[in-house]
Amino acid sequence: MQHPLHASGYHPPFDSPLHRLDGRTKLLAAVAMVLAVVTTPPNALAAWAAFAAMLIGAAGVARVPPGYLVRRWLIILPLLAGAAVLPLIGPRDVLFLGMPLSRAGLIALRSIAVKATLAVTAMTLLAASTHVADLLAALRLLKVPAVLVMLVGVTHRYLFILADEAGRLKRAADVRGYGGRWLWHAGTIGRMVGVLFLGSYERGERVHAAMLARGFDGLMLAGGHAPRLGRWDWATLAVWLTALAAIRIAA
User: Fold this and answer.
1) Exposure winner among 76, 178, 182, 236, fewest CB in 10 A?
2) Are residues 32 and 126 in the same domain?
3) How distant, in Å, are the alpha carbons of 12, 17, 54, 148, 170 from that of 144?
């Protein structure tokens, strides 16, 4: 398994103040940021700017490159494409670039775009500053149901198996001269997807059998004493939550 920044080709020092915080601190801070953002009124531009400043500051402390954040932001483009029809719904009471549009629709589109950007940035910073093992440990210590924690861990691990299967299929197609750039290749692509699904399913069955042979009983929980949050964790969490609450109340 790779850290998400490693998978993107960037190798950070993993020694920033944000990286050294406990996983529970970062998880609670990220969830609080998302809740504050999504409950902020649509016209609270100053509050959105304050939230963005907090995230930019956190990214600077963690030394996460801006390009990495921008690439992760691209996942909201389908959401924005679907929300782009909102200005076309309702009374056309405003002109935008010479086109009559709905003012309420434009406000809703802006709200969705800003809130999605801030929420994705918060979760991206959480993933960039926390290893998956630490994140799973934080979920366990926060009393998240053990089955859910196990599912998250297994899903993350299986994604690498799926990517490996897809890479082998792609290499096999390339050595046979398959380009896959034209519409009439859709049938071949569909068959490749089917082969990928069946191969991944069979691989998953073999992995499950291997886990059972090693004593897997349905849970992947590490024992041991739960560490206490340090003073820097409590101080960081208190400052972060206080700032979020102040901004949200002011909005």
Assistant:
1) 182
2) yes
3) 29, 26, 27, 7, 38
